[in-house]
């Protein structure tokens, strides 16, 4: 353990090169062909790691094993977002309209670093036994036509069959590099997407009384949607309903016959989730009271991320040992969603947030200027690698006690 930090710092320049290469050549969900090829090629050069390509799509799995013992999984997501990058950096995206605006390039570089460190640990520590799976996952940001993200495809492919514990991280722009954020229990929100249509009759803008204006009908629906979490859900529950898109009409003097509205429902509790989905659908029915028509399609996404207390405690002990001067914030991460939640439903697992805020200021996730303090790369690498070692050693200690 005492050598892990030094080993990670020794490969910091390599971590930066990997991250910047990935940043320059981003690929959106379900399109990560070249990213996967890059990852597989790097993994194949690391001693002792067996590489499997095209797992659940463009997923890549590296396997490092020796002897018996438990199986641990470390996961990183690889996909980018459909955003035009505005950051003026030498390694800006070369794929216009696609950008690593959520730090998945950093996650991938960190996991490649962790694989490098663990390969060395297995070579130098003859008492280290067990299996570590390095899961490089596609499509965290989007679902396919069947409503499945990359994590679901990996699970259906059987990658978690023997996994006893799984760990992941996410770079965090609201914390500086000397801080990590941890939390047990519900830590990120579930997500459901609604797409609704409100229909009237439309007409001339000068004579709205002769038709049934769908925008006016929408104005009755919107307050109901925004009131749901304030008056239909307990104030003690965390939940939010947000409208992200409204579209309709073609000309400024023509009232259209219909408008479309899209948004999301997020919360921590499954009972609350069920109630909000029901109430959102009912809110659209308000249009019918005023003579309009409405439809509401709900698509289920990730469940809430439930971090297991045992896995969180292991990360906390490791982080405190490696970086005793760093701060550990014990708070939920918010209502953003993360498809690692699917993995956390299958095995003992935890995802932590790694501070990455540059000295120049905060650059938020999913924005066209998002950047990180790259010194976080070696820290994430050492914590991930050391956590895997601690998990393997913990199993050995449990066995020896029996």
TrEMBL record:
Pfam family, one: M20_dimer
UniProt GO MF annotations: hydrolase activity
Keyword list, A-Z: Hydrolase
Top-rank lineage group of the source organism: Bacteria
Enzyme Commission number(s) of this protein: 3.5.1.-
Domain Peptidase M20 dimerisation: residue ranges: 197-284
UniProt cross-references to PANTHER family, sorted A to Z: METALLOPEPTIDASE, PUTATIVE (AFU_ORTHOLOGUE AFUA_6G09600)-RELATED, PEPTIDASE M20 FAMILY MEMBER
Protein name per UniProt: Amidohydrolase
